[in-house]
Design goal:
Blueprint lengths: L1 H16 L4 H20 L5 H5 L7 H20 L1
Helix pairs in contact: 1-2
Length: about 80
């Protein structure tokens, strides 16, 4: 998981330091956000997150994801 995060940061740093179009930066931001969401929250990006270059997360979706994670953690403890 740390390797993925380091790789995402390295790629984002390389792209952001070179003169690139904003569309390319948006693509890198979406990929970085997708890697982060997958590695830390075990989920896919929502449509809203992808449309905003991975910068916006709907608060209702965030709360639902947190509740789901807590529920799964409780179920794992029982087994």
């Amino acid at each position: 998981m740390k390797k993925v995060a380091v790789a995402a940061i390295a790629v984002a740093g390389l792209v952001l330091t070179s003169p690139v179009a904003s569309a390319q930066v948006c693509v890198v931001a979406i990929i970085a956000k997708a890697i982060y969401a997958s590695a830390t929250e075990n989920r896919e990006l929502t449509q809203k997150e992808a449309m905003t270059c991975g910068l916006v997360v709907d608060e209702k979706e965030r709360q639902a994801l947190m509740a789901k994670g807590k529920k799964e953690a409780r179920a794992a403890k029982k087994h």
